[in-house]
Amino acid sequence: MKRVYLDNVATTSILPEVLEEMLPYLKDAYGNPQSLHEWGDAAREALDDARSKVAALIGAQPEEIIFTGSGTEANNLAIKGLAQARESQGKHIVISAIEHYSVLHTAKTLEKWGFEVTHLPVDKYGLVDPKEAAKSIRDDTVLVSIMHANSEVGTIQPITEIANVVKRNGAVFHTDAVATAGTIPVDVNELGVDALSFAPNQFYGPKGVGALWLKKGVRVIPFLDGGVQEGGRRAGTENVPAIVGMGKAAELATEEMESRMVHLSAIRDKLIGELPSRIEHAILTGHPTQRLPGNASFCIEFIEGESMLMLLSQQGIAVSSGSACTSRALKASHVLTAMGLPPEIAQGSLLFSLGLENTEDDIDYVLAELPPIVDRLRQMSPLYSKFLKGQQGGS
Amino acid sequence: MKRVYLDNVATTSILPEVLEEMLPYLKDAYGNPQSLHEWGDAAREALDDARSKVAALIGAQPEEIIFTGSGTEANNLAIKGLAQARESQGKHIVISAIEHYSVLHTAKTLEKWGFEVTHLPVDKYGLVDPKEAAKSIRDDTVLVSIMHANSEVGTIQPITEIANVVKRNGAVFHTDAVATAGTIPVDVNELGVDALSFAPNQFYGPKGVGALWLKKGVRVIPFLDGGVQEGGRRAGTENVPAIVGMGKAAELATEEMESRMVHLSAIRDKLIGELPSRIEHAILTGHPTQRLPGNASFCIEFIEGESMLMLLSQQGIAVSSGSACTSRALKASHVLTAMGLPPEIAQGSLLFSLGLENTEDDIDYVLAELPPIVDRLRQMSPLYSKFLKGQQGGS
Amino acid sequence: MPIYSDTVMDHFTNPRNVGEIEDADGIGEEGNPVCGDMMTFYIKVDNNHLSDVKFKTFGCGAAIAVSSIVSEMAMGKTIEEARKITPALVAKELEGLPKNKFHCSNLGAQALNKAIDDYLKKQGK
Amino acid sequence: MPIYSDTVMDHFTNPRNVGEIEDADGIGEEGNPVCGDMMTFYIKVDNNHLSDVKFKTFGCGAAIAVSSIVSEMAMGKTIEEARKITPALVAKELEGLPKNKFHCSNLGAQALNKAIDDYLKKQGK
Ligand SMILES: Cc1ncc(COP(=O)(O)O)c(C=O)c1O
Ligand SMILES: Cc1ncc(COP(=O)(O)O)c(C=O)c1O
Known about the structure:
The complex is a heterotetramer, with 2 copies of chain A and 2 copies of chain C. Chain A has helices spanning about 15-25, 40-55, 70-85, 100-110, 130-135, 160-170, 190, 230, 240-280, 305-315, 335-340, 345, 360-380, 380-395; strands at about 5, 65-70, 90-95, 115-120, 140-145, 170-175, 195-200, 210-215, 280-285, 295-300, 315-320, 350-355. By secondary structure, chain A is an alpha/beta fold. Chain A has 2 domains: about 5-10 and about 255-395, Aspartate Aminotransferase, domain 1 (Alpha-Beta Complex), CATH 3.90.1150; about 15-255, Type I PLP-dependent aspartate aminotransferase-like (Major domain) (Aspartate Aminotransferase, domain 2), CATH 3.40.640.10. In chain A, α1 (about 15-25) packs antiparallel against α9 (about 240-280) and α10 packs across α13. Chain C has one domain (about 5-120): Sufe protein. Chain: A (Alpha-Beta Complex), CATH 3.90.1010.10. Chain C has 5 helices and 3 strands, in the order αβββαααα. The interface between B and D is medium-sized, with 25 and 25 residues. The structure holds pyridoxal-5'-phosphate (2 copies). One pyridoxal-5'-phosphate sits at the interface of chains B and A.
């Protein structure tokens, strides 16, 4: 059977070149970068080299990079650490309503710590309005965090404009760029932000590592307490192989970004263009043009996401969904809800996140396999019968 | 040149069998365990399997294991999370004076959060007195954390006795077993603890992963906020390859523990036995018998650790030291200081941490190479001239 | 490891008794699409026995499998027997359900019960 | 990457002018073993020139290298010239030192200066 992986939002594959670069550090070069001998020297050198490559990906300086254990940890460090470092100046922070849980739930923890959190709404495309952002800022606002792009619906935010507003008011600005860094051009200077989270399992690097870029001079309270690693800002033995892998993945992403984007948007546009002509009542979610090159997200009306996922999986097709049933918490995606989609439509969420390995053939395969699956589930769906009856009644 | 790695306290190597087991998850089986398709299924299965093996190493149930990104993170989660979950009952915690920085500095953060911290002293061997522990416990004590063994001096604590005392008084008891789990028998039931941290880069597994064992029913406030991974107790995409590696390393450690211990203590005893007969004024630190099988730690009087390290390194020998100069913070080891060693003697700290790969030959090599190095540095040392002059004067 | 048992997968992939009954004696609807799952059960009753059971379901794999097995379990039973199809029994027949899917087995039993209630009401009982 | 430059490694591995001068004209001690580093400098002065410089050092690789290069830099200089050996100059001669080792270059210059002070004091100046 054909196997088509279209769940790159969950994690990408690891490129063979990346693994190749990691292997020595999983074998003989196993030293700890803190050690003062040959084994330590080799590990330290690898770390420095990776740091430079990772910094180059986002137009930053190597010493501004703090390696973490994941994108989630980078977001925890940013939100908790930047807010705590400023709590004497104020205890108000601003985030968007469609942040990833690693920002959203971290903000909830800040609420327990006595902070007040404003959640900025988004429009039907998932866009934050910079004017709304400006209005939300108060004298006691110390931190604003708006994600660069949302991976569920692909919408890319006007970060530069939002950052402008925030800066004028003196709060620090963090952006969660897990969905963008390594995928589309990200330059911290152009964005005008103070802190930025990213992770290589979104750009063909390994799991178990992420990074927070922190502009020189921006103070943060460390999140992980312990040893002196990462300039005292993130304790714990460095995950050398994974960091090396992040370095290589960053290097490749920098080199190949243009061609990757061209390839991805071509097959994405094919999917976005043709799917609605094969399946009635399929709604594209997210912004029609300001969106991630690999993201094709839909809501398929009258049926539910998990059942589509499972039937697609039986045809070798791997995708994801923001439906309530696919979430452990059994709540429909807060992103789709914040964009104003009615819950019963959000249940039909189906997210194709395309990757480098995908071809036009893969898209054709999906376009052939999905319609009968949708038909079959609609035949089973009481909502669809009601809709059909309503139409008959109406006509 | 011969190369002899005697710095297993910094990190061990990764066994080829462990890497072998990890590789599929760095290649085709790159799925995210949260995904509802074949790729996700494979990753989830690997995670479950690793969890069972890791639990078996310490006599625990699989669902009691929370995977983290490092031993440091396990300690942060334990100390912060257990204390925070109990702050309505009291804000006093007890730790020992010789804890690893990931406990010591985390406790400092708790002080900033309004907790009071008692640091239990140790005797000249580095032992905590259970009676002292009992005395330290107050009505508002909610957490006690005493490490199972200290990796710098090798001393193993009487955890069962201490846990007994703590339990009687109703506080939860955590032990940092990073230096022991996978190295000597660790059984959570025998120890009688409520929570236990460990990490595989101490037992021939990978970096970038650790675990906190938390007894069923013991409440903890999560440290990393975000998604629902690890039963909602540790957010962030699971580091599948590293977790798989931890599983395999745990399995091998369980199987081979006896023979590893026999081998390690044999070569350790040779080093401890013969070194003082080749080098005058070499003091064994830590407990003479209750010590880790691979640990041979000394203070070499009149000279400083880093210079020994560097000259040993030139002979291909990798070791570590607790001297001020080898620490980034430029302070002599708090462990040696807490054991009552005068600072100028602590500066001569030299730690041989032996591993599976080491042989009797390696020990002979060290015993041959170290004495001329010590001589050479002593010839340069103003302290040594003073000592010699004092002796002449005294005789 | 798949999150569902083989039995769940079988009933999800080949659901029994999907459809509506035009002249049903009782109809029961449970759940709603907002929560993610919604089931409609249709029954024909003949001499106090469920002579036909059909369903339509909007929902996850578990919801579909639950509907299917409930329809199978109920088919041919007396009303009293059908009343005894509990969520626990449904989950057991399916060889287990993931913890967060237990509510689906509730829905199935409830929808069937509502169909029976509807039948009895129509009978004026 | 080694934390030390090649020059530091050279001076650490082959330190110049190690030893004591029995009949030194000036002796200067700086640092103490509690902090990790301690240096003693011995000088002979001939016609206002440092005709011999020796040292003993307890300390890290940087401390030993610093002592060695300071002894070399001072050798043969006039007292006034030797006074101009600053910590920054020492670090530069060594092609850099890790940040947390800068204090070692201070110690070296200070110990030499103390030895000169001692000489001048003995001269009654
Ligand atoms: C926008 C965004 N932020 C943060 C994360 C968290 O990443 P992780 O779970 O790998 O830590 C994700 C994960 O997909 C993401 O999409
Ligand atoms: C006793 C003990 N606890 C905790 C740690 C922290 O481990 P890591 O730095 O790998 O997170 C160590 C590291 O050696 C240790 O020896």
